[in-house]
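Recap slide: ATP-binding protein, sequence and predicted structure.
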Amino acid sequence: MKAASVRLGGITIYNFKNVLEGSLSFINTRKTYKASIVGLYGQNGSGKTALIDALELLKYVLCGRTIPEKFAEYINVDSESATLVYQFIVTTSEESFIVSYQFSIQSAQDVSEQNINSIQSTEHRKRVRIYNELLKCPILGEKKIRIGKLIDTDTSQVFLPNPKRLLLIGNDRKIDTDLQVAKKLTSVQSRSFVFSSELLGAIRNVVSKSINSEKERFFYATIIESLVNFGNHELFIINTSNTGIISLNAQPLSFKFSGGKVGAIGSMMLPLNEPAVIPEKAKEVVTKVIQNMNVVLKQLVPDLTIHIKDLGTQVLENGEIGSRIQLMSRKDSKEIPLSYESEGIKKIISILQLLIVVYNQASITVAIDELDSGVFEYLLGELLSIISERGKGQLIFTSHNLRPLETLDRGFIAFTTTNPQNRYVRMINVKDNNNLRDFYFRDIMLGEQDEQLYEQTNNADIALSFREAGEYCGS
């Protein structure tokens, strides 16, 4: 069963971090482009990172992985649960259609490591409980195709509707019982049930025994497999921890590539203040990633390339032979350790291979928080302009640097508001000859949009607060 291509069409967030409600489409309705770009702008603490966190949560769910406990803290302080709704555009060789997936999360007490209540234990770890999963897609039948429920876990049964359950997992009582147990287990383990290995295994088993004429079953199974493939192989999240790792003198590398006998997907962290000892296979992957990256890097930063310096072999903990390597940079025939390059160059290196894939492949989505961190604003604007006009994939980013407002089509730009119940908007009443950057500054001052985009500060009050704070410093 061949997976279809998947792209994010939009997201709606309820009670997640400081977003009581926010809905954002990732589709440029102004003009048709092969690439899908969304740049989100707004003042600090207005919901930009919440969007990236919501996409990171989606990746954990689609991969069937345990949701980290940090997400229990992301539920809005005034709410008991958060709900997220994701819209996907699924494209097969024959057609494109919309698929919707939503779920809620709650914070639960994790007592899995304790078998009695103890007065000595005052701290309890939290875990995330995911529930009320709902997967909707076009429903095939004799009548006109409509969007309807495919899997709804808000039931005491394995899932509803009954006809879809029988179609996807059959009517074997033992399988039904096993999945009931799995449903409870995934709840305790902070995993999605819809995208769990247990449910996927049951569906795959039924599909493998099906005949080609059972079009409806194959159609639904293809949708589920496509979302699983998207989460595991085509959705990449780069959050601010990436920048934090760089400041600690380590080099993160995120990548997806295939070529010859070597193909890899994922991320890797290499120390810069000392040689790294890595397995031979990992060295081969890093070498291929760097070769691919250097083709573009020397154009972004004239004549700059990076490479691996081989410092010999070393026996690994498992007894295998590993390689001692150090990342080096070369410019103007001079070679220095990469650790001495600027953080901006290291930031570009950490994401460049993924940007190459976004440019060349339609079936990839990369979400980057604070894309502009450490990157020269003119270069940032040119990079995004090239990807938006000639690229094929999907790039979602947040930024404080306003240069892209002058280089990107305004249909690619969205803004946060000061209203937690309507966090994400696009500018209205912008004319084609308006400079969006100037227009944004003007709205900050005059507030001409339906929603306020910036909470005004008072310079006199700020100056006074600095003076008052100085009194505590002995000034």
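The longest helix spans residues 280-300.
The longest strand covers residues 96-110.
(End of recap.)
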